[in-house]
Amino acid sequence: MAEKIALVTDSTNDLNPEVIEKYGIHILPLKVVYADRQYNDRVDITPEEVYATLDEETPKTSVPTPFEAQQMLGKLREEGFTHVLAVHISSGLSGTAEMVKMVSKDFTDLVVEVIDSRSLSMGLGFIVHQAACWLEKKMPFAELVEKARGLVDQLKVFFVVGTLEYLQRGGRIGKVSATVGEFLNVKPIISINSEGIYYTYRKVRGRRRSIDELFNIARAFIEKQKCWVAVMHGGAPEEVVYLRNKVAGLANVEKLVTGQIGPVMVVHAGPGLLGIAVCPALD
Fold first, then answer.
1. Are 143 and 23 part of one and the same domain?
2. Under 8 Å between Cβ of 222 and 255
3. 180: pLDDT confidence band, cut at 50, 70 and 90?
4. What pairs with residue 87 in β-bridges?
5. 195 plus 118 within the same structural domain
6. How do residues 214-271 score in pLDDT, each as one tens digit?
7. Last residue of a domain, one of 152, 183, 204
8. Strand order in the sheet with 198-205
9. What is the value of pTM for the model shown?
10. Which of 53-57, 86-90, 93-97, 210-214 is predicted with the least confidence, judged by mean pLDDT?
11. How far apart are CA 70 and CA 64, in angstroms?
């Protein structure tokens, strides 16, 4: 029987809505949870709305519900899909991938493969986008899964934040040291390790120096091969233009994406995030 393959991810992917629509990518939204209300990430709340009340209340976040995953897989089955590739936010930062994996066991008539991206934002987004390009070329499911898994180890994500306070508060600080360095204006450049959790890649004194060093780190990877690059921000619209313009001048940048991180990411990063995701151009 011919394969009919669906591509599923979650709302932390930060892909452009036009890309999601073009390739028919299915999205499971995470939740932004306040004391008296709850929102679906990127569906009924915006990053600006989170920033507007951050001083009054820092919300919590949660994974999509198992019921939502069941509904999505059930709908895909009804639509005649035989295979599902689900690529999700790092399991070191969220239980989303594990939840989808558990729910998928109830769908014995669907072949479901869940990939832990060990990334987030456009790090996750680039894996999904690349998989969508391969899927458009009618790549068989087994090969699609293998190539998408291979991308996980090739992706690089680096970012700086305005303050480590929000990563601490949300319990996502991982191996990043939140010590006296904050008082000395030492800014950690953060990446994601092989376990999918945050760690300090490098330390730089001063905000502007940290942004320039972020560029230098990314440039070292970009100079090796053609790349897709994303320059993302959270409440730092002027600085993201500065960083984007520097990246745009590099010869190996085949695709350059700029955007703002989604509400769930805003909750954990707070204002002032600047990040770069680098992915080999493979399609």
1. yes
2. no
3. very low
4. 115
5. no
6. 999 999 999 999 999 999 999 999 999 999 999 999 999 999 999 999 999 999 999 9
7. 152
8. 198-205, 186-192, 156-160, 273-280, 227-234, 253-260
9. 0.94
10. 53-57
11. 11
- Any idea what the CATH number is for the domain that residue 192 is in? 3.30.1180.10
Long-range contacts (CB closer than 8 Å, 24 or more residues apart) made by 49-53: 49/263, 50/263, 50/266, 50/267, 51/235, 51/266, 51/271
Q: Compute the distance between CA of residue 181 and CA of residue 177 in angstroms, rounded to an integer.
A: 8
Report the alpha-carbon distance of residue 238 to residue 269 in Å, rounded. Answer: 18
Are 216 and 148 within one domain? no
Q: Which of 140, 83, 138, 90 is nearest to 113 (CA)?
A: 83
Decide: 51 and 272 in contact? Cβ < 8 Å: no
Residues 130 and 100 grouped into a single domain: yes
- Kindly state whether residues 15 and 108 are assigned to the same domain: yes
**Range 163-172 average pLDDT:** 75
Which range marks the domain in which residue 168 is found? 156-280
Task: Kindly state whether residues 130 and 256 are assigned to the same domain.
Answer: no
199 torsion bin: left (phi>0), alpha (psi -120 to 50), beta (else)? beta
Cα separation, 270 vs 265, in Å, equals 8
Q: Which residue has the tokens 């376990």?
A: 195
Report the candidate in 155, 279, 157, 127 with the shortest Cα–Cα distance to residue 217. 157
Dist CA 194 CA 207 (whole Å): 27
Work out how many domains the chain is built from and give that number.
2
* C-beta separation of 214 from 203 below 8 A: no
| Mean per-residue pLDDT over the chain, rounded | 94
